[in-house]
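FORM 12-B: Structure-to-Sequence Request
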């Protein structure tokens, strides 16, 4: 969307990375100018850091402001930390004044505009357009393999197939990702008697005692001061349905889903496991004339099929070939390409099917490579039984999924160029999303999105830092360190090295000194928590005449924490910075320890003790 601005900046002499940074910073400053101009520019990061600061400060007075904040958060998430934003401001200010639209003399100053002098003069129109709506989806459509030789990797083997002419095969239908809910997201009124009529219809098609079960359900909705039984209720926003086991929650879920689907609504139902997903799809299809489809991740299909076979075997049918369950039709594992393999090739394992990674043999005689490096999609994708669920989801108005399927699975690239997960698609298109066992799903989502990980641990537990360092070393080795030509990679690598050195020093102290371990106690600590404890021990709250030295010490240590190596904009603490560099790199520890002790005695005014 900012391509014209970037082009103009490139023409003015900026490198691509400088132009991209300039646009990011100016977008952040433009947001700040619109929503919070009375504050200093150094505080702009709070608007896109994810904390609802703008709402708390009453800056979101109109819907437009809420959209602007959402868009900015999407575009500026890499600058969401205070130090990153301040570093970006400093880099921005160092760029030629001719190309900048703002003057940022210091993060503590308010916004100051500069004339743009013929370089991307309309940039603010582009920034405002970017902030006014969600950014468009990116992506280019899949290319399908044509007649001729193709190769793909299957484990260590390279397999070649000669594809026949498949030009007559249709291309898969894609999702309209801009589809809105038919009810426009408005509250959904529900009449209990109509639900019972739907339940009777369902019993007429395949009896499951729906009507009797619905009549026995007692639904009480929230009134002004208490919960009351009502024949009519409205589903609006997020609502919880509570009830003991057997109260009829699942019955209501199914009848309501069928009822709304028959009225043209779009519903997404999230349940606990794949077996229940497939059974609900069967039932919903029976009662709605085929409006339901499951969302299943591609990778787990083989495992789910095996589980279903085991379950049927457990019910007494030992012969796998006699296992019949409509759910198997969504768990297909066969691959047509097996029929095209040569006699020397083994049958493809489930995960070896080259659905989107076939490489065509180049036909041009002067081509540098014999095989194209660009992967193409299997021409049989459109009719492949492995993707039955994905095909049916395009037309289905009831989507049924597990939480993992919804979050992990994406709309396949052969269907849609846009990269979009089913979770996002479901949120955009559904009138109603019903989540069964919401507490369990919440736990699953917490595990997926907010996992607790050990930063540095012993040999018995995984450690994020050790994983990171191992990954970094492997990648740099495999890439012959060419990645370091990228400035961001170089900065990130240096940061990981510094963290590793610091961690080793801290661990060495903790491992060697029992008193120190006990003082730190178990759990986690940070520079901030250690600073608080040190200051509290030196200048306790109940001591007299400590306010001024405590404030001075706090200010100094705050400045040091914000800029420990003195390489960022803002205040520096040269003595502490020199000392920390020496502590991290010294090979003469006794001398450094003496120097550090003397310094700390002076800093904490301990000479009297
Ligand atoms: S799309 Fe189907 S036929 Fe084609 S490679 Fe994948 S599994 Fe095989």
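FORM 12-B RESPONSE
SEQUENCE OUT:
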């Amino acid at each position: 969307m900012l391509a014209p601005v970037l082009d103009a900046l490139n023409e003015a002499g900026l490198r691509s990375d400088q132009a991209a940074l300039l646009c990011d910073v100016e977008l952040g400053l433009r947001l700040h100018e619109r929503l919070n101009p009375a504050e200093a520019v150094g505080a702009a990061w709070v608007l896109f850091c994810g904390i609802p600061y703008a709402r708390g400060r009453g800056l979101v007075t109109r819907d437009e402001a809420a959209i602007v904040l959402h868009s900015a958060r999407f575009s500026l998430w890499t600058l969401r930390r205070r130090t990153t934003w301040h570093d970006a401001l400093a880099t921005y200010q160092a760029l030629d004044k001719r190309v900048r639209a703002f003057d940022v003399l210091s993060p503590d100053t308010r916004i100051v505009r500069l004339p743009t002098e013929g370089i991307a003069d309309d940039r603010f129109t582009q920034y405002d357009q970017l902030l006014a709506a969600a950014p468009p989806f990116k992506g280019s459509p899949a290319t399908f393999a044509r007649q001729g030789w193709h190769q793909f990797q299957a484990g260590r083997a390279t397999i070649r197939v000669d594809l026949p002419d498949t030009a007559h095969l249709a291309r898969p239908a894609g999702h309209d990702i801009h589809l809105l809910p038919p009810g426009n997201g408005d509250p959904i009124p529900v009449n209990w008697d109509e639900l019972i009529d739907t339940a009777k219809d369902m019993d007429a098609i395949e009896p499951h005692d729906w009507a009797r079960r619905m009549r026995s359900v007692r639904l009480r909705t929230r009134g002004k001061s208490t919960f009351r039984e009502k024949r009519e209720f409205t589903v609006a926003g997020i609502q919880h349905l509570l009830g003991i086991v057997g109260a009829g929650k699942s019955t209501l879920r199914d009848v309501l889903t069928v009822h709304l689907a028959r009225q043209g609504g779009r519903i997404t139902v999230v349940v606990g496991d794949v077996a229940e997903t497939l059974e609900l799809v069967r039932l919903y299809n029976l009662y709605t004339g085929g409006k339901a489809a499951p969302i299943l991740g591609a990778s787990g299909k083989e495992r789910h099929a095996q589980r279903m076979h085991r379950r049927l075997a457990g019910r007494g049918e030992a012969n796998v070939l006699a296992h019949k369950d409509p759910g198997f039709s969504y768990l297909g594992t066969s691959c047509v390409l097996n029929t095209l393999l040569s006699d020397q090739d083994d049958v493809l394992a489930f995960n070896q099917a080259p659905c989107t990674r076939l490489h065509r043999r180049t036909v041009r005689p002067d081509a540098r490579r014999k095989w194209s490096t660009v992967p193409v999609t299997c021409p049989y994708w459109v009719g492949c039984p492995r993707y039955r669920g994905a095909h049916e989801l395009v037309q289905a108005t009831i989507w049924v999924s597990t939480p993992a399927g919804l979050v992990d699975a994406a709309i396949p690239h052969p269907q849609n160029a846009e990269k979009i997960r089913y979770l996002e698609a479901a949120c955009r298109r559904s009138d109603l999303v019903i989540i069964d066992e919401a507490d369990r799903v919440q736990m699953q989502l917490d595990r997926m999105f907010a996992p607790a990980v050990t930063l540095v641990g012993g040999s018995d537990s995984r450690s994020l830092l050790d994983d990171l360092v191992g990954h970094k070393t492997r990648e740099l080795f495999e890439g012959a360190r060419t990645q370091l030509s990228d400035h961001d990679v170089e900065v990130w690598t240096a940061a990981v090295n510094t963290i590793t050195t610091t961690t080793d020093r801290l661990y060495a102290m903790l491992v060697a000194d029992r008193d120190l371990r006990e003082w730190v106690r178990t759990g986690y600590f940070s520079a901030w928590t250690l600073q608080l404890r040190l200051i509290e021990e030196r200048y306790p709250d109940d001591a007299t005449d400590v306010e001024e030295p405590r404030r001075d010490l706090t200010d100094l240590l705050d400045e040091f924490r914000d800029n420990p190596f003195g390489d960022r904009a803002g205040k520096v603490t040269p003595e502490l910075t020199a000392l920390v560099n020496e502590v991290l790199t010294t090979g003469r520890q006794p001398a450094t320890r003496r120097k550090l002790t003397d310094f700390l005695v002076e800093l904490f005014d301990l000479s009297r003790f």
